[in-house]
């Protein structure tokens, strides 16, 4: 190879190396100068409105009054004047107990009364005679005293006989068993021929049907915040409504009012038993039915709501990431109250002007540049309506 050819090849190699070095340097310079990529997120404004807060509890229908009817006297049931399930009124005849022995007892007691009246007349006459003889000094003081004692004994026997007659008549009257209250009779009534032991055999059970109680358990906090405040202001209304949903999923048309609360907190469940009263004119609610108790409370005006999707937890702190005025992510610690549908009520930490991030939160930290897409609650499927799983279910 000639010297001229060597020079030409060297020049070509030098030029190639220069171009390659320049290209490499240019690529490196572009990488260093490129701005960091923005994190794509979706964000939305906070809601500020008055919204209902729904609490749900499991309850059971109970009669306001329920009485087990028993006979005061023993004997076989010989007549039945009603059927199980009938509506009855106070004073209505229900059963007839075999009265023959009680009729005999009345006759016997009356005979003893007549005998006592005869003995009293005899004792009275004897005392009056001895009193005249004593004045004539024909008998001793002791004889007069004995006749006075006989008279007192006859008087006492007469009173005892009168009581026996009255008791015998009461027993005879009690052979007809009457309803003590208005209500509906149970189906477990006894059959004719059943022997009813006095005071122990339950002939049937009668319970009132209008109104009725719905009993449910509520946490201590909810009791203090909802029920106790309104029970202390009876007749003044409340800031909530109490309704029930029956087992078929339908809402009962009448609203209820809490009227009774247990005297102590249950140590096992840390809850309080509450009874609410409901009108039941059509007799739809029956004792023993299960019902879902729904308490709807107004949150108050201008309540600030943050989507549940925006909430983050770290150790014992709750925070949300917001969009700062400079387009960067800003972390804010918040304090929350009750849950309302897809939202939580904000107690502190946020203001109505804040824009919260609801999507793109995975591995997102404060201080990151954001590529923000504003969305609405409708687009995200958020709602303030209570879901199937209500707040504070207990």
SSE blueprint:
Elements: H1 3-33, E1 39-45, E2 47-49, E3 52-63, E4 66-70, E5 75-80, E6 87-88, E7 93-97, H2 100-135, H3 141-173, E8 176-178, E9 183-185, E10 195-196, E11 202-207, E12 212-219, H4 220-231, E13 240-246, E14 257-261, E15 271-278, E16 290-298, E17 303-307, E18 311-314, E19 317-323, E20 329-333, E21 335-340, E22 343-348, E23 355-359, E24 370-374, H5 377-380
Parallel strand pairs: 1-24
Antiparallel strand pairs: 1-23, 2-17, 3-12, 3-16, 4-11, 5-7, 5-10, 6-9, 7-8, 9-11, 12-15, 13-16, 14-15, 17-22, 18-19, 19-20, 21-22
Helix pairs in contact: 2-3
- Within the largest sheet, what's the order of strands? 13-16-3-12-15-14
In helices, the fraction of residues equals 25-40%
Q: What is the distance, rounded to the nearest whole angstrom, between the alpha carbons of the first and last residues?
A: 98 Å
Order of helices and strands: HEEEEEEEHHEEEEEHEEEEEEEEEEEEH
Which structural class should the secondary elements be placed in? alpha+beta
What is the radius of gyration? Answer: 46 Å
């Amino acid at each position: 190879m000639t010297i001229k050819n060597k020079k030409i090849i060297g020049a070509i190699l030098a030029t190639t190396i220069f171009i390659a070095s320049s290209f490499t340097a240019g690529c490196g310079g572009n990488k260093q100068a490129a701005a960091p990529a923005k994190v794509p997120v979706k964000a939305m404004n906070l809601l500020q409105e008055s919204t209902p807060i729904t609490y749900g509890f499991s309850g059971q229908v109970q009669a306001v009054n329920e009485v087990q009817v028993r006979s005061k006297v023993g004997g076989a049931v010989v007549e039945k004047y009603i059927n199980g399930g009938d509506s009855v009124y106070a004073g209505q005849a229900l059963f007839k107990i075999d009265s023959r022995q009680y009729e005999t007892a009345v006759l016997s007691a009356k005979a003893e009364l007549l005998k006592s009246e005869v003995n009293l007349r005899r004792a009275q006459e004897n005392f009056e005679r001895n009193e005249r003889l004593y004045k004539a000094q024909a008998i001793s003081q002791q004889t007069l005293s004995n006749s006075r004692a006989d008279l007192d004994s006859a008087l006492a026997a007469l009173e005892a006989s009168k009581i026996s007659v009255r008791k015998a008549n009461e027993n005879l009257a009690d052979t007809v068993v009457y309803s003590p209250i208005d209500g509906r009779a149970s189906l477990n009534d006894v059959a004719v021929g059943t022997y009813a032991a006095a005071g122990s055999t339950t002939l049937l059970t009668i319970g009132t049907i209008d109104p009725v109680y719905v009993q449910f358990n509520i946490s201590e906090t909810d009791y203090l915040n909802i029920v106790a405040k309104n029970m202390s202001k009876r007749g003044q209304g409340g800031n909530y409504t109490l309704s029930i949903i029956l087992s078929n999923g339908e809402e009962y048309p009448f609203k209820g009012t809490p009227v009774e609360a247990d005297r102590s907190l249950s140590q096992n469940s840390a809850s309080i038993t509450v009874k609410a009263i409901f009108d039941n004119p059509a007799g739809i609610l029956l004792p023993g039915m299960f019902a879902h108790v729904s308490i709807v409370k107004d949150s108050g005006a201008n309540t600030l709501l943050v989507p549940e999707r925006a909430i983050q937890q770290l150790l014992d702190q709750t925070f949300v990431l917001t969009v700062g005025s400079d387009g960067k992510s800003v972390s804010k610690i918040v304090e929350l109250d009750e849950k309302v549908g897809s939202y939580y009520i904000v107690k502190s930490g946020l203001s109505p002007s804040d824009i919260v991030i609801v999507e793109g939160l995975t591995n997102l930290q404060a201080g990151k540049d954001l590529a923000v897409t504003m969305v609405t609650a409708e687009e995200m499927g958020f709602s303030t309506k209570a879901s199937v799983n209500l707040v504070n279910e207990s």
